[in-house]
Amino acid sequence: xxxxxxxxxxxxAVGHDYAEKWQEVLDLLARxxxxxxxxxxxxxxxxxxxxxxxxxxxxxxxxxxxADLGTGLYCETVMARRGELIVPNALSDRxxxxxxxxxxxxxxxxxxxxxxxxxxxxxxxxxxxxxxNPYNATYRQLLAQFRAMVERDLRQIYxxxxxxxxxxxxxxxxxxxxRREFERLRAGERKALQALRESEERxxxxxxxxxDGVWDWDLSEGGxxxxxxCQQLLGLFPAEIADFQxxxxxxxxxxxxxxxxxxxxxxxxxxxxxxxEHRFRRGDEWIWLLARGMVVSLDxxxxxxxxxxxxxxxxxxxxxETELQLLNNHLEERVAARGAELQAAMQQISIAEKQAALARxxxxxxxxxxxxxxxxxxxxxxxxxxxxxxxxxxxxxxLSRKGLQEFLQKAxxxxxxxxxxxxxxxxxxxxxxxxxxxxxxQPKRSFHPAKVMANLLETLLPAEHHxxxxxxxxxxxxxxxxxxxSALEQLVSHLVANTLAHGFxxxxxxxxxxxxxRDQDELTLIYADDGKGIGHDLQSKVFDPFFTTxxxxxxxxxxxxxxxxxxxxxxxxxxxxxSEPGRxxxxxxxxxxxxx
Length: 596
Description:
The chain is α+β, with helices and mostly antiparallel strands. The protein has 11 helices and 18 strands. This is histidine kinase.
């Protein structure tokens, strides 16, 4: 089993979307507690940094502001004891009357530690006031709830990093395993080739007198001289050596006719050298010999008189060639088997990537819902605390008109926050449900796409409201298809919204063109605009749920994800993006004219 990944948290980045969410709650916390400063601090030894600071009146702390550790800061004690610290009034507390924050007018403090899942300290979450403040139980509960929310996000950031590092390690291990398997497969081939090279090297050494047998044949008398090494090689004794006919009598009968014919042809035209490979009986075994020779003397008529050559034992080389041939015969089968294993491994990787994509989508949805639901919980908790407080005042007959009016004003603000965040959560859930939409709820009928698109664009982009946008429809008026008109309307509506939000957001207008054509049983819809285009680094992500370049500006990143889902789930088609920065974007969609 693989050991758990040890994520280094010192430089682990906090994404922009998390920071935006924390900032919103810091601002809400400062407003509800009526204090000038709510902070998230991050420790960066030997300093500590203001990571986020509430946007509230009287707040003296700025983001990215650094302070040295070891100077008696409140946050140092919180991180050291990993527990809560409350200082109602530092001016009257001998332990804190020298605290550096007093110089900024902050004389009261309440803070909690923030800890990564591996128990590394991230920093603190704290609030400060310029007046004495005992920070009642409700405020302590609010700060604790926010701390829990931030630590949940830290856990998500940590786990995402750990999964990414573990996935990278798994891919590297799998690649290394496949490489080793192929290396093992080729090891046999390299071994056979090495044996063949060694045999060739022995042959070269023989030519240089390094141990192969040398023979000298007197063609006129028929006698032959064999060196001692040659005698050993052939397994002969000096008494057996008579003439060159011995060479023929011990040659393998399957090769004798061909070798005799080659030798006769060479002696007729003794140019260059004679080379022959054949089997030779040595004792009770057959060995392979390489014979090389050259005519070195001719008579006056040009007939050969003397021929000198060498014998080399190439049995090992022939065996290596045989092994290599066998290996080559089976290599294709082995490669095919390894290829099947590799394909299976790639399928497993594909399944893992699909599961990771699903996990990212679910995590994105949970992240998007976390902020409005967290705000609802905070507001409801505060409302309950305020109701309890005013009920207690009423029971003890301490309720004043001013107190009631303040309660009503605060309750109205809280209810407004509750309604706004509840509507946002409901809208998110509705959009998320659209991602899983199928064709069961889509009526299918025959219609003219030219009329449907014209009516839709009149509704979406009336000329009186969008005078700087030009619309061009290239749809045959007589084209009739049987499909899902509402699906096409939703698809084009999301594309128009994407153009208005991203393509025309800088120049305020431009041209939109919609083409629909039919080629036999397939339809092609092209939606194009001449806006600012989409960068190459973003094009692979635009159809991912919750991917947006306008985080914190109202964008949720679901529009093009819904387009992709409509094309695949309802229209049973395909979509691709073509875009160059500064030259607009085009979405090309192909789908069956009559999907089943």
